[in-house]
Amino acid sequence: MTLIAADATRSRALGLTGICLGFLVITLDATIVNVALGPIGADLGGALPAAQWIVNGYTLTFASLLLSAGVLADHVGSRTGFLIGLAIFALGSAACAGAGSLTVLIVARVVQGAGAAALMPCSLALVALSFPEAHDRRRALGLWGGASGIGLAAGPVLGGVLVAALGWRAIFLVNVPIAAAAALLLVRHVDETRRHAHPLDVPGQLLAVAGLASLTGGFITTGSQGWGATLTVALLVAGIAIAGAFVIVERSVAHPMVDPLLFRERTFSTAVAIGTVFNFCLYGAIFCLAVYLHRAQGLDALHTGLALLPMTAVTGTMAFLSGRLVSRVGEWRAIVVGLTAGTAGALLISLEAPGASTTALIPSTVLLGVTALAMPAMTALALSRAPRDRVGLTSGVFNASRQTGGALGVAVLGALLVSDGSSVSLRAAFMATAAAYATGVALALSGHRRERVGSLASATSPGL
């Protein structure tokens, strides 16, 4: 019996390793490309708006397809959905490496985003269902969040090294062997989950893609054409109108991709809002710093990655430590600590920005890395409110909100940068980042207070 239990534990650990590797590779791709934007632009052409589309072609597709991917996870089984996502992601990565034009590269990034969207909710669902006990699940989610931290931490440095040694195409080829290793571990050590038939919401999916693309495109065009340009206004107005239509459709269709009933649970709604703010700040800040270091400070890809290393190293460390912190102080406090550090770091960068040297910025960027304490904590909160037969859909909604925040962060904060990435515009971008982080802190404090009041009320109710 002891040997059987040991084998089962080992198999679960290897299965979790495969799940985390798959999550790591799609997180790695969200940051590794930032330090290569300069060399890509020199090779294929393109100004700052083009660089934003290289980043957001991936993030936007990732965000908009995550909702349907959650349904896929429930419909075909999470392991199958995970493997499908890995295969699409690897093919998209190979296409990026072989791209001969900026258009082809952006299209290939869209393919990568589609694969990442299929994989993400499946990874969360597999963790949740493989570790049903609350204590084991919390530890597994800590490791899962740590994999994300490693991806974020390794991206800029690994990207800089690969670009310097082999050229920018290598940053995409590195994904292929990692995806293959993840797939092998999954096939051998992770069981398929139960299938739940949920019809696909085609109108909702089309509206989600169109709305996010319009809003993101509108913010990106402000950088080149200004806020009052006809195209900018048209895209932003269209995005808002489509978002309204999306809400109406989701309230009226029989099987919505975003079930409005999920948002009646206030803890889940708060976790979703915090996730949106978190990725808005994280993705937008990394993009702005990479552009600033390359264009204003004149750093190449390798030195840009090294300049970001202290921040990303702390990000990875904090993501791993988050599990222990959550066990001691709870999810809400971990979120407050992380986002408060982000607020302080962003404020310091905004004050230092005029004429700031790379060395002067590094201590403040380290504070941004501490925000990773919030990642596993907010994920655990969201999943704790998921119905057992809707884990895929729930994780899809939660992660779609995060990736939507990431796409908008690159677009909005990128729009606050002038074309040369000067320090003046960096100040505006990080003032906005600090305000967003502070909003997240307020949301977490409100959620914590509400939960404490609810617990006290339950404890003092008669008959309990």
From TrEMBL:
Membrane topology: Multi-pass membrane protein
GO molecular function annotations of the record: transmembrane transporter activity
Domain of life according to the entry: Bacteria
Annotated TM spans: 12-33, 53-73, 80-108, 114-131, 143-164, 170-190, 202-221, 227-249, 270-293, 305-322, 334-354, 360-384, 396-418, 424-445
CDD domains: MFS_MMR_MDR_like (cd17321)
Cellular location(s): Cell membrane
SUPFAM superfamilies for the chain: MFS general substrate transporter (SSF103473)
UniProt keyword terms in alphabetical order: Cell membrane, Membrane, Transmembrane, Transmembrane helix, Transport
Domain Major facilitator superfamily (MFS) profile: start-end pairs: 15-452
The keyword Transmembrane is assigned to this record: yes
GO cellular component: plasma membrane
NCBIfam families, A to Z: efflux_EmrB
UniProt record similarity statement: Belongs to the major facilitator superfamily. EmrB family.
Cross-referenced PANTHER family: MAJOR FACILITATOR SUPERFAMILY MULTIDRUG TRANSPORTER MFSC
Name of the protein in question: MFS transporter
Organism: Solirubrobacter ginsenosidimutans
Lineage: Bacteria, Bacillati, Actinomycetota, Thermoleophilia, Solirubrobacterales
